[in-house]
Design brief:
heterodimer; A: 13 strands; B: alpha+beta; 8 strands
């Protein structure tokens, strides 16, 4: 039975590696270089591709052989990747979790094997498992976005909210931060709230359904990430609704460009490159002997609106893409 | 040997019994439980007490820290010279951020009052203008300005987001309510406040501060 289980785990691990190495293009493994694994929740969203590719690139700059693993939003696949990374001799794991609770066991397994895990962007609900967690301040970012939303709406109107994957803290923190502001304005009414799992195609379907149901009553849409904002945008364009104010969160390049064109109202700029680079540098420091890391490093999120869009570019700020570290 | 007669139940009654049993079973153990999103997002019964944490923070951390607030006029001058240097000297950043948090004190005269803020001219020669919020307070500035809240103290960051919200409510019902009740043009106000900034504020765009302690003086 155990043998069967081991074969199954190894098969899954092998399958995961095969799939993940394709988008990363990281098939070559120069001999002699220490390994770092980059485990990303999904590569079905350009934002996460940037996160993974940046972590990999920074690790390589620091002299490591880095490989990206795509968990495809599946904790079982994620577990297989961890097994594979540990068994394959990775000295650190740069980790974008699939599930705040469901991913904890994987991190603990790595810790027990002596492999440090540095979480990027997505939190795990434990403070004794990862070596450090470098996390976007999703709540604070959506508070700021909520304030801009209220201003842009003139403190009145109807909106719909499209939430992310409910198993992830980020989905809740974003929604909560937004509502913490917007719910104080009685003439702004949420007429529908649905989850679309941070997925562009699902958001497109959800938005189509909401447009059929609520039609002209919708004045604005708040999406929990930019991939969903792009899905909603497609549905709005198809329905000829250029009067609807659309808000996203992430700072994806295509959304920033649409803000500059006046097609999308605003988004929250996370700094995926900053987080990814910091995680790789922490891993390098750990491998070189440092052990004292902050458990949680919040990364500020900034509002990208028509007023500020000129400051922002390729997944960060134009002049100084990297916020100051203290 | 006599044969025991078998009791026969009519078929409709059999189906009815099966239906009732199935209904009872699924009532006890439902196959699917549908919850509205607002219920799914509601905190658990044993939720962390953010209000209690906020009240403790206020008396244990924030009130003692107010005595350490930097003179606002000096901070503004330092910001104009070199924002990064001003942050190192007078402020603090949280994690990776382009913004810096400051705890400042000043005396000034209220120039004008609007529903959500009042403009204050600092009581120094060529005094700058700042605004003190008199509306709602959002974000983590107040929670993080002292640096005493350990952001790793809770496994789930949603708890500390709730703390920030609870602290902001204390600000609104405390110092902001006091300021709002007395704010009028010409009134002198002595205050300790906090705010965050990336670059130096200007006369065109004065710094928005959150009052944390307010003493209302007489009109000059």
């Amino acid at each position: 039975m155990h043998r069967l289980l081991a074969v199954a785990v190894l098969s899954l691990a092998a399958l995961g590696c095969t799939r993940s190495s394709t988008p990363s293009g990281a098939a070559s493994t120069p001999a002699g270089k220490p390994k770092i694994a980059v485990v990303i929740s999904t590569l079905n969203n350009p934002w996460f591709v940037v996160l993974g590719e940046t972590a990999k690139a920074r690790a390589e700059e620091l002299g490591y052989d880095a490989t990206i693993f795509n968990s495809e939003n599946d904790t079982a696949k994620e577990a297989a990747h961890f097994e594979n990374a540990i068994a394959g001799g990775s000295q650190a794991i740069l980790f974008n979790a699939t599930d705040s609770d469901g991913s904890i066991a994987n991190v603990r397994r790595a810790k027990e094997a002596g492999v440090p895990v540095f979480c990027i962007d997505r939190e795990i609900n434990a403070t004794d498992a990862a070596t450090s967690q470098i996390l976007s301040d999703n709540h604070g970012g959506c508070v700021a976005l909520g304030q801009y939303f209220v201003e842009a709406m003139g403190e009145k109107g109807n909106y719909v909210e499209i939430m992310g994957y409910l198993g992830d803290n980020n989905a809740h923190n974003r929604s909560k931060g937004f509502h913490e502001v917007v719910d104080n304005y009685p003439e702004i009414k949420m007429i529908a709230q649905q989850a679309a799992d941070f997925d562009r195609a699902k958001a497109l379907e959800v938005m189509e359904t909401l447009l059929q149901k609520h039609g002209a009553a919708i004045n604005a849409v708040f999406c929990g990430n930019d991939a969903m904002a792009m899905g909603a945008y497609q549905a709005l364009v198809a329905a000829g609704r250029d009067d609807v104010k659309l808000f996203g969160f992430d700072g994806a390049t295509e959304v920033v460009a649409l803000i500059a064109d006046g097609k999308i109202a605003a988004t929250g700029m996370q700094f995926p490159k900053t987080m990814a680079r910091q995680a790789a540098e922490y891993a390098d420091e750990w491998i070189k002997g440092k052990r004292d890391f902050p458990q949680k490093v919040p990364v500020a999120v900034e509002v990208v609106s028509p007023d500020t869009v000129a400051q922002f570019g390729d997944y960060g700020a134009k002049e100084d893409a990297r916020p100051a570290a203290r | 040997m006599s044969e025991t007669p078998r009791m026969s139940i009519p078929r409709p009654l059999q189906w009815l019994s099966v239906g009732v049993m199935t209904a009872l079973a699924t009532w006890w153990v439902p196959l699917v439980r549908i919850k509205p999103l607002d219920t799914a997002l509601a905190p658990a019964a044993d939720a962390f007490d953010a209000e209690a944490f906020a009240r403790a923070f206020w008396t244990r951390d924030l009130e003692p820290a107010l005595a350490t607030a930097a003179p606002l006029a000096g901070v503004l001058e330092a910001l104009r010279d070199d924002a990064a240097s001003a942050c190192r000297t007078f402020g603090r950043t949280v994690g990776l951020s382009r913004s810096c948090l400051y705890l400042v004190r000043a005396t000034g005269t209220i120039e004008s009052v609007s529903p959500n803020e009042c403009r204050v001219v600092l009581d120094v020669p060529d005094g700058d203008v700042v605004t003190l919020t008199t509306g709602l307070v959002f974000g983590t500035t107040v929670r993080d300005v002292t640096g005493t809240v350990d952001l790793a103290s809770r496994a789930d960051s949603r708890d500390l987001a709730a703390v920030a919200s609870a602290i902001n409510k204390l600000v609104v019902t405390g110092p902001i309510a006091a300021l709002k009740g007395a704010a009028a043009p010409g009134v002198v106000v002595d205050f300790v406040a906090c705010g965050q900034v990336q670059t130096a504020p200007s006369a065109h765009k004065p710094w928005k501060l959150i009052p944390l302690r307010v003493t209302i003086g007489a009109a000059p």
